[in-house]
Write a structure and sequence with these properties.
2 copies of one chain form a homodimer. Chain A is α/β, with parallel strands linked by helices. The first copy, chain A, has 3 domains: about 45 residues, no CATH class; about 120 residues, Rossmann fold; about 130 residues, Rossmann fold. Chain A is about 45% helix and about 15% strand. In chain A, strand 8, helix 11 and strand 9 form a beta-alpha-beta unit. The longest helix of chain A has 16 residues. Chains A and B meet through helix 4, helix 5, strand 2, helix 6 and helix 11 of A and helix 4, helix 5, strand 2, helix 6 and helix 11 of B. The structure holds a DNA duplex.
Chain lengths: ~325, ~325
Amino acid sequence: MATIYDVAALAGVSPATVSRVFNGITVSAERSERVRAAAERLSFIPNRTARTLRKQSSEVIALIIPDIENPFFTALARGVEDVAQASGYSVVLCNTDEDAEKEARYLDVVVSENMAGIILAAASDLVNLTDLTRRGRPVVAVDRSLPEVDTVTVDNVAGGRDATRALVEQGFQRIACITGPTGRTTAEGRADGWREVLMTMSAAHVDPDRYLRYADFRVEGGHAAMVDLLNLPEPPDAVFVANNLMAVGALRALIEHDLTPPLVGMASFGDLPFATLSPRGVTVIPLPARLLGEAAAQLLIERLQGDDRPRQAIRLGNPA
Amino acid sequence: MATIYDVAALAGVSPATVSRVFNGITVSAERSERVRAAAERLSFIPNRTARTLRKQSSEVIALIIPDIENPFFTALARGVEDVAQASGYSVVLCNTDEDAEKEARYLDVVVSENMAGIILAAASDLVNLTDLTRRGRPVVAVDRSLPEVDTVTVDNVAGGRDATRALVEQGFQRIACITGPTGRTTAEGRADGWREVLMTMSAAHVDPDRYLRYADFRVEGGHAAMVDLLNLPEPPDAVFVANNLMAVGALRALIEHDLTPPLVGMASFGDLPFATLSPRGVTVIPLPARLLGEAAAQLLIERLQGDDRPRQAIRLGNPA
DNA sequence: AGCCTAAATGAAATCGATTTCAGGGTCAAG
DNA sequence: CTTGACCCTGAAATCGATTTCATTTAGGCT
């Protein structure tokens, strides 16, 4: 309720002086003290809306993610939050549910609330960021890269290779792959790594894509794809699953068919969330979610502080 | 970049008229059309900051939760989001990490950004909501009840009873309980239900609290508590765990000791997240997270629309 | 003592919307 | 033909901070 005008009146100074006190601009010790006392008495909380309107930018950064129920993204969010908090920014989390329309709506909100910047794991490769960039709002794409803007990702192809090689070394022959939606860069990259390894195997006289399934990065999708693979005349003896949730689904399918790993081999890109199974049997390619978030926030904050290097494309190593 | 003044100039009308067009106030069809065309050409996005400043309230509701990495709270968040979106509100998610100080900081942000209202799963029972309520911002406490404000919870005592009874019916004798931090209402309620059942059992000639452990609602806490219980001279033969994450930790401990349920009985308050284990062995008391979120959002929105009934305390039934 | 520089302060403009108030136009009833 | 009622419309005030610009004050140096 109390405004800087009230505080100013009570302290016997001008509103400008009150503003200066709260922004660390030199004010005589004696006045400064009077202002603080007055603010305290009125339990004054500065109105950020007015501040944002005048400064044309808030201290809030938006983090837009496609699935808030996926522990990968919440871990990433924790990373963003930690770094942002340390620099005095608040983070607001927006969940698009992999829906391009919801995403577009949130992007409008970002512009229209004058948020400082945005970290985006895009639901659609076709996001329109012109409203943002035209207004000079920095954008960092995380996990899923986007053209034109800074990007923080992992090496999906290498991860796919590592996972598949691990299965090969465990002696599996017919290695399937369950990946994400077609056209999604993370999904394609991981499948590419898998295919690459299989093609270079001497024994690969069959078309690997027979064992390739595109699903939706969700538990049910992984489950359905695994069931489908198990119903083949010659089912695979191992599977590389391209994300954590689909791995959960696939694992459930295997358990239902009494094929608990390592009866059938499994490798997952990203840790299995809250796994209670003993880790024997499932090979996990670590996906440093929190680090991704931290790096993205770091980069965004540098941009907010005026860094104008050319476009950065950071690729985090998989700490194999 | 474009403001209503630019749009007004291009359309040859006053800024007031532009505002009216975007707020559904009657404007002649012909002018309205000119305004829309102009806005389109300038790709005008209304500045919500200015709007909020003038209206003294934004269309954003804050959801403050203690642990964004707990699937229970993300499911709850989904419920809030769905209902809020449908009424035209955006949701911003704030993670307090069970830290009262972070929580207080976010509450200040809520005030200072003129957010419309707030849904709170409080980290501390001692939250100070006077700044909010004095300014007439509605507050709904969810999952964890608070005095003075509207509240949406489940019946914790009944849940604890049901879980414990289920273990009794499965023939277990020495039933332990791992609950949350002392003083947290949800933790105490669930433990009370457990104790109640044990006290009424004829065979309960021993003090049940010998088998009671207070942990932190997190995976590691559940694990440590379970290990501790297993190291007792006469370890329990079953355990009721008061939340999903601690259940994961306890389950891991049991598996490590080759006591996978049902070798040792287990009941969990709330679904095990992403369980890959076959459900045999672990009794689950369902916790309707999403429904909690929906109900809380529903109630908050009614308050925002002027509902002034006395304080509501909604208790969702456990769909046993 | 006098002059110059630098620091501290306040008045007023500004950010971009909403909303009150008053004026002007249209139409129907008397 | 006049009067009133009602609907559109625009001018201007308003929300609460920040910031420019001009002015005052203090202090240092010769």
